[in-house]
Amino acid sequence: MALIHSTELLLLLILFLVSSKLATSHSTVRFLPGFQGPLPFQLRTGYVEVGESDAEEHAELFYYFIESENDPEGDPLLLWLTGGPGPLAFKNEEYTGGLPNLTLKPESWTKVSSIIFVDLPAGTGFSYPKTESDVHQSTTKLVRHAHQFLRKWLIDHPKFLSNEVYIAGDSYSGLPIPVIVQEISYGNEGGIQPWINLQGYLLGNPSTTSAEKNYEIPFNHGMAFVSDELYESISGINTGHVLEPYCEEPGLHKPMEDTWSWRRSLAHETSPLTLPPLSCRARAYVLCTYWANDDNVHKALHIRKGSIGKWKRCNSGIPFKFDVPSSFQYHVNLSRKGYRSLIYSGDHDMIVPFLSTQAWIRALNYSIVSDWRQWYYNGQVVGYTRTYSNGMTFATVKGAGHTAPEYKPEECLGMFRRWISNRPL
Question: Most CB atoms closer than 10 Å: which of 230, 255, 320, 348?
């Protein structure tokens, strides 16, 4: 019986490997519309098909892969779920129509790591469900698909099989990422191939316990914006970064709309989109919609023709079930398994205030290894940090908003560079 079991296991493994190879594709991208000259970094794009059984919904997940600009063979590999600190940005200049211009960002985290930016769940970005019956998504499905994606991607890119792997993201990713890390860990323990050299995870301003809104009142009170009694009358505040100007964007959202819903969706946009002024950060959010819907951009990225309709920066129009209300217990489980984690918070974010993140970390009740102290960059205090005996590091980023690397790119690269190399902040 043992021999039969081993043979069956080997056959299943072979079938998995074969199907994985057939279900992936990738292309090298050397030029991008809007960027002058050849790309000064290694970019590959492609699709990975996920859905392991006939009973499971299938999807084609699109990704951008950028090799580390330092040491691709030795540097860690990040799987990043939501946008992220990549090497390109839109030029903040007067827009006269046509294709927006791109510029190089020297603070990209690809300076010290390779990063796979994947569009998840299916139906967002350039990822798409295989059939109309596959459109329904959920947090748990996102977890399964991310796990399948990474193992198939590594089979298709075997030179990265030995690299240290971290799962990273911000905002809503605080709910699925700890679950993804646990599923990968269980897969390794169960012998699923290829084995993933999983080391830990990173989360920025993460949703965690579904209690984040409870901390908006004390956050606003502490910032001296309003009294508790007047909180309900607040409007006109940029909740992503409370000190930056609030920009009215007709057709995108209204001041009193749920900010989280707006940040996840341009589903109710008017056409054409109103371009915010140069002083508004949201200007780039509209420019990316122009850029990503250009036919020449689709050709350069090797997007499958007819696979999606109009590209949206964030798409909450897909049917999605939020079936992981809290990731707290997953943090507990991962800490027991010895995985490292970096949890960082832009301290001017009202969407997921740093107070809420501090609260659930405090509730873990782990011993403090290095107590609350300042951390520096270029001789200046740029935040505060604390490390715990469970391998977790918490850090604030002074002056940053909801997606900290977007607001403080240089400081956040310094933070990441130190943490990923096991140095204290």
Answer: 348
